[in-house]
Amino acid sequence: MRAPGRIFRMTVPFRAAVQRFANLLLAAAAVGLMLLGRVENPSIEKLRTTATDFAAPVMTALSEPIVTARRLIAEADDLLHLRERNALLGEENARLLQWQAVARRLEQENAALRAQLAARPDPHAAFITARVVGDSGSPFLRTLLVAAGQRDGVRPGQAAIVAEGAVGRIVEAGDRSSRLLLFTDLNSRVPVILEQTRQRAVLAGDNGPVPKLIFLSPGPRPPAGERVVTSGHDGLLPPGLPIGQVVATAGGDPRVELSAPLGRVEYVRLVRYEVPRVPASPRETQPPGKR
Amino acid sequence: MTLGLGRRLALAIGRTTPALLTLLLGLPALLPIDIGLSAGVTPMLAVVATFYWSIYRPELLPTWAAFAIGLALDLVSGGPVGLTALLLVLIRAYVANERRVFLSRSFAVGWGGFALIAGAVSLIAWIAASAYYGQVMRPGPAFLQVLLTIAVYPPLYWLLARAQVGLMRQV
N or C, fewer C-beta in 10 Å, chain B? Predict the structure, then answer.
């Protein structure tokens, strides 16, 4: 520590005044930026995507040791439970073989029925696999930073899935990085459908681990364990992506436990899905049959 | 007399240590590490670093540097742009002003003071985030984050003191 020198002491009042003014100015600038961001100013968004593009390679390098450590732990765990896991996998394989037979039969039946009805096939979906290199680090939002961007074909709105199910959708896409809004985020609203009862609802995040179902269409309260999938009604996410299961809650809105382990997502697959669009034109207001 | 290259390099490293360390300490929170607590709850390491340098070397972490670091972290985190910048500016401005109080007292007093400031900063962040998103944030995770930050203060203080002794002897 250096003691304040004589020159310093002489200029203290002046310096203090300048300093105080600068502090105020900077604090005001920070608040101003927040207000600009609040009204979704495009320049703030541009700044953000530029910053993440710049940071993504750094984050990738920094997350490398974590990935390695995680892999080592998983490997050790595998070795420790080799026998149990082997038995479990054998059982599961036998069960899946039965399901394979069922799926093949259904596939053929489906194809035959579609042919009879001349049904239009669903639009083709392609995938982009990308590494997760960052998260928000804040208790106020649930986002992930993904190391793939516009130049890899990532666009805002694309769904992100992992092996267990869907986890969220892209909200910002930079050139080489993009931000993924998880279903648990406060701002996430996704139209879903319950698999058995076919009730529609909106899956709404609240930053907690289990998002809730709001605007549930009339019907019985969904039982715990009921599977929840995307409905595709937002025109963004493809329909039928598995999300999770309804969990038992005492009261209030039913909640959904996501199938995907959000804390341990290493890679995501982004779905490039061409959403069928109805041409928006005044003709739509005409009675059907006149077209 | 011009300084030798080695000495100039040492000086440059020493002078940039506070700002660089503060920025670097902001990064671990942004990495996808699940520490087993509630999601998104990570210690606010950059807050500890800003507190430390505001007491011991405020001239090497000027308010504008605190602002720039906060802004950079905000842009990468995807949260409200300006929130971390505001918090770090407030800490730097307040603590540097009151640094004599901390300089003359024991470590425990410093820790207590930090606990109060971390709590205040978190409360401001909670209010600002609630206003920004137009919804009352769940207070639990924010509270947990403060406790975690207070808990990591002693080891981080030791680490920063090491860095100050090791890298900034000539500055």
Answer: N
